[in-house]
Design goal:
Blueprint: E1 9-12, H1 18-28, E2 33-38, H2 41-54, E3 57-62, H3 68-82, E4 87-90, E5 95-96, H4 105-132, E6 136-141, H5 145-148, H6 154-173, E7 179-184, E8 197-198, H7 202-213, H8 219-231, E9 236-237, H9 241-252, H10 254-266, H11 269-273
Parallel strand pairs: 1-2, 1-4, 2-3, 4-6, 5-8, 6-7, 7-9
Helix pairs in contact: 1-2, 1-8, 3-4, 4-6, 9-10
Length: about 280
């Protein structure tokens, strides 16, 4: 696997903050060349400076993942600047919380365009590059909500489940091209996702913020686990114990899981545990 990463070049969407910035910083300290992509130019420059200060090289790339032409331009830019790319990390994402029927169709399209179509655009733009150079690796950032299917998160769950399914398909399809694929499925950790949270119900919004606020996992720690998994060419990356536990319960006892979760939610046990 490491032979495919010998060029030490990575392209990261959503690299202006949170996990994307943490991965960029970690690899910068290992003297990697980092394509820093984000829709916010100011945040791009902050991450670029951090990578350079850590000892790496950085390329600032303004990128809106809802625009396939932006990802195609980014792929061309990586080839022009550094002759290609070794790892592509599709990380950009936003969050919507609320009961399915209360979320407007416009908001559904918004989150699908960013979270799911953004990953699709990234894969479509970079797979030909990776294939032409003889291999590489793709990292798609999902969530344990891809399989947890937590209530109140239908929009978010759907996009992350789509990422999981797409990643599983690509893991099989791209093996013959020497392209590895990993999907990151973390539970809650300290990130800037809440900056992009859309929720018009104060009680539900408070619950989500509480979950993130109580997390003891910093983005740097998730980044460490992810980098180690990519080096070993592991597919499923579940960095925290709670994600691993729920993954096993859902796979081994699916009916039990659904009935139990529905009971706890109906009785407001989950909400009481969170203190709201």
């Amino acid at each position: 696997m490491k032979k495919r990463l010998k060029g030490q070049r990575i392209f990261i969407t959503g690299a202006g903050s949170g996990l994307g910035r943490a991965v960029a910083g970690r690899l910068g300290s290992r003297h990697w060349r980092v394509g820093v992509a984000d829709i916010d130019p100011a945040r791009v420059q902050e991450t670029v400076s951090m990578v350079q200060a850590a000892g790496g090289q950085a390329l600032a790339i303004s990128c809106d993942v809802t625009r396939p032409e932006d990802l195609e331009a980014a792929a061309a830019e990586m080839q022009t600047a550094w002759g290609g790319v070794d790892v592509v990390m599709n990380n950009a994402g936003v969050a919507v919380y609320g009961d399915m029927e209360t979320i407007s169709l416009e908001r559904w399209r918004w989150i699908v365009d960013i979270n799911l179509m953004g990953v699709i655009h990234g894969c479509r733009a970079f797979i030909p590059v990776l294939a032409s150079q003889g291999g590489g690796h793709i990292v798609n950032v999902g969530s344990y909500l891809a399989f947890l299917s937590a209530p109140g998160s239908a929009c978010y769950n759907l996009t992350k489940a789509g990422i999981l399914s797409l990643s599983e398909t690509l893991r099989i399809e791209l093996a013959e091209k020497n392209i590895g694929v990993s999907v990151l499925l973390p539970s809650f950790f300290q990130t800037h996702l809440m900056d992009q949270l859309y929720c018009d119900d104060p009680e539900k919004k408070a619950m989500v913020r509480t979950l993130f606020a109580r997390s003891t996992w910093p983005a740097d720690r998730v980044a460490e686990r992810l980098i180690a998994a990519v080096e070993k060419n592991r597919f499923y990356v579940l960095p925290q114990w709670d994600a691993k536990l729920l993954w096993r319960v859902k796979r081994w006892l699916p009916d039990f899981y659904l009935k139990t979760f529905a009971f706890l939610y109906r009785r407001r046990v989950i909400q009481k545990m969170l203190g709201i």
